Amino acid sequence: MNRFAELLDRLAYEPGRNNKLRLITGYFREVGDPDRGYALAALTGALSFKHAKPALIRDLIASRTDPVLFGLSYDYVGDLSETVALMWPKRVPSHDESFPGYPPPQPSPTRGEGAQLRARRQTSATTDRNSASDRGTAPTVPSPLVGEGQGGGYSGRDAGDALHPSNHNTPPPPTLTEVVTTLRTLGKTELPKQLERWLDELDETGRWALLKLVTGALRIGISARLAKTAAAALGDKDPHDIELIWPGLSPPYLDLFAWLEGRAEKPVNRDPAPFRPVMLAHAIEDADFAALDAADYVAEWKWDGIRVQAVAGRDDRGHVTARLYSRTGEDITGSFPDLVPSLRLPGAIDGELLVLREGRVQSFNVLQQRLNRKVVSPKLIKEFPIHLRAYDLLGDDANDLRELPFAERRERLETFIRKLDDPRIDLSPTVPFASWEALTAARADPAGAGAGEDADAVEGVMLKRRDAPYLPGRPKGQWWKWKRDPHIVDAVLMYAQRGHGKRSSYYSDYTFGVWTEGDGGDELVPVGKAYFGFTDEELLQIDRFVRRNTTEKFGPVRHVVHEPDKGLVLEVAFEGLQRSPRHKSGVAMRFPRISRLRWDKPPREADRLETLEKMLKAEPAEIEVGGAQG
Amino acid sequence: MRGSSPRMTGEYQNTAAYMTSMRPQDILLPVASGLCCKPGGFHIDPVRPVERAVITHGHSDHARAGHGAVLATQETLDMMRLRYGENFAGTTQAIRYGEEIRLGDVSVRFHPAGHVLGSAQIAVTCKDTCIVASGDYKDAPDPTCTPFELVPCDVFITEATFGLPVFRHGDAGDEVKKLLASVALFPERAHLVGAYSLGKAQRVIALLREAGYDAPIYLHGAMEKITEYYQSRGIDLGELRPVKGVKKAALAGTITLAPPSATSDLWTRRFPDPVTAFASGWMRVRARARQRGVELPLVISDHADWDGLTATVAATGAGEIWVTHGQEDALVHWCKSQGLRAQPLDLVGYGDEEESETPLPDEAEA
Asked: Which end of chain A has fewer surrounding CB within 10 Å, N or C?
């Protein structure tokens, strides 16, 4: 557990993806089975046990510490698990109770610096006390009671330190395996006692990780995909291969690690509904069209939803199993139980997950309410009805269609969807066009070109070669995406923050604002934050500007001059806009990035909030949700 | 919460009381310029220029220039000279650990504080009352300075930099192992360790050497002088090199020590994809480390942690505890819960040296 905790701790500070991978791979290499398997399960969210409530953790710490000291500490640290992990006082065992007949435990003499210190402390305390009484300056009060747990005088501390694992009478800290397997079977009433025992046995980082684990709040910025990629690196394998067999695997993944280390054959995925690596498109540039023949391509709308693979298959006994995968192969079935009954025909659909209300596709912002939910309530299902819009068929019953040309797969898809005849699954229509000019016109006006009322959810068009087989990855010249032009506003740089890793000395995160009428005339109100879109050269320029025009500093954040005639205007591109009660401006941007530096433009000529508000369409559903949650 | 101590000030003005019975506040009293010893005619660690100053250690918030006469350990005097130049005080007098000097009506004795090289606790005894002003101290081992010595007393004046039970610093040797493990894992990156230039930096170097690391260690320019001084006092730090002028590629896989403020500035661009570490007791709290953009927090502190503070307070046998800079509330509360008289001393001008170290100018080539 302590080694796993150390990994989590380090990952929590590491901003770089490649470095995170190396840390995780290093852990898998160093730690044996089955611990590393349970670690992989923890990182991929594949562990299941009842989580402990924060109230339980509070009760545990309340029984061991002074409430005033806990209150002051919690105020300072700001995180319950961390506060408890840091201040958890180990129980001082009563000697006659725990070790009848044994002499009182002595600090182990082999314990490095600490041991020497204790020894010296005791001798110096004794000698000094003697010399003090010789001098006649006896202490005015006797030493406070010892053995009170936290900071209870010298002897108390020594007894506490004697709990170190090196001592013969202390159980070793639990392994991750022990924690996970115990939690699986533990009854609710036994949990507090068990947690207490573990907290006594673990070190600080171990306690922190344990509490994060049992409260179900790891939050260390590691995706399941990243963890699997790190595992793949252990055996120099393609992470895709792991995704393919993943649904058939279960913790602690002994067969997976055996294969990765070359000790066994690749585990066979006996899953009746496996994931197939997805095919991706290249962004098309204006210059590309000259070399392309419009007749070779089929066009579809590019929907602003979530790319998914919906797979259904029969198991050995003939029962149909259905699974929903993200584009990286993560199993997201649990988040969309309402779609599962519709996946009753064996096959593999490639499509877009959308929210439909009264037949109309809702914006991505609405769909977002359904993403990353641990608990899917009936209310959520009712208010955000999920829908699958199909655009490809990779498997039809037991047949693999991926070798077939797209046009043929499309025909099979149309038949499949007709046969399925389900209101939750429909066909993504093709966009008829005779020339690139015609397609340009359709892209500019999706509503008039067949998308009708769903036009707001269209973020461009997809071009697919009629003869393209379904190839994993991003093969050249087969599929193209032609996105709608982004929204653009001119905003003023207000605050800058230092980046991480390679950018740690650069001011690379920018908060920008637009003008609005305030109490004392026009003022800037922040509307977003962006940390990419600029070139390395532009980063240097902005960094220099920030350093020379700082008005105030708050830790890593600098206030940058932003007055009508002094400041830097940033052209910001973004994909969409959302009402947000959390932002002072009331709006939040989707996917904002710096598209240009407008050194030529004085800040007073930057855009106004009213411009953004006009872009917002009334979306009553979101306001409702915001209200219900907050 | 943290009220000032008007009661003490009021009583002090009653000189009749001072003549008859020696109460602690008649011996030492917090005033604007620091801790004043009226019967001895001196101030301890004064923050403003005074006639006679008695100084615990060389950190700039405790040892300032411009006093008439300064009494301190030889090391502290040397450090002040290094920082402020030859004329940092009118006259100076060096005192050894264990040595006792009579000043006015009191006797003053210096004891090791274990904080940095030359750091001392100052025991002030008047008649039969002994007060120990411990300055900054730590009860953890440190290969670069004399270990903390427990001094029994009636009143113990303690710092409270890490005066919350969440601050429990582990073995510093383990933290250095963490650093070395990272260097092994990322051999193509430079490791930049933020550490306060006086004391912390040399301790980290000594710990690295104890852990068997024998490659040259690189130094930011601001650390060279003080580190050379440590070496001149016989502290073996192995091979040290100035980082200035070293080619970027040559710094891959190396360790460089720099003042904390330098680790997040333009200066770091000379290093290949640096891993930013920071050696400080503050690193115990994750949010604190993240705020600073630290990637490798090293919990190495030159101050006593909570367990150290409470253990020391108890072991001095003092019945009255005065708590100075830091998290006074929690420590005062703890003392009272142990049946000790305790109060915060609102001394202004002392802080955590790591937080107060002056940032370098942006373009500084150091």
From this structure: C
Q: Could you give the ipTM of this predicted complex?
A: 0.86
Cis peptide before A34 (omega within 30 of 0): yes
What kind and span of H or E run contains A394? strand A386-396
Give residue-wise pLDDT tens across range A464-493.
Answer: 999 999 988 888 889 999 988 888 899 999
Beta carbons of A79 and B287 less than 8 Å apart: yes
Amino acid identity of residue A302, one-letter, is K
Q: Contact A143/B333, CB-based, under 8 Å?
A: no
Give every CB contact of residue A222 below 8 A, 6+ residues apart in sequence.
Answer: A11, A20, A24, A43
Among A587-596, A597-606, B11-20, the minimum mean pLDDT is found in B11-20
Q: Which of B321, B313, B311, B316 is nearest to B344 (CA)?
A: B321
Residue A48 pLDDT > 80: no
User: What pTM was computed for the model?
Assistant: 0.69
Helix axes B200-210, B172-185, angle to 10 degrees: 70
Task: Identify the bridge partners of residue A389 per DSSP, sorted by sequence position.
Answer: A352, A426
Chain B residues within an 8 Å CB radius of A142: 317
Which of B155, B179, B295, B300 to mutate to test binding with chain A, by most A CBs within 10 Å of its CB? B295
Write the CA distances from A390 to A58, A352, A412, A425, A514, integer angstroms: 49, 6, 12, 7, 40
Structure confidence at residue A131 (pLDDT) = 41
The answer to whether B319 contacts A139, with C-beta atoms less than 8 Å apart, is: yes
Q: Which of B151, B164, B339 has the CB atom closest to A144's CB atom?
A: B339
pLDDT of A147 above 70: no
* Smallest CA–CA distance from B114 into chain A, residue: A117
The verdict on B268 touching A (C-beta cutoff 8 Å) is yes
Residue B7 scores a pLDDT above 50: no
- For position A501, what pLDDT does the model report? 57
pLDDT of residue B365 exceeding 50, the answer is no
Decide: B323 and B344 in contact? Cβ < 8 Å: yes
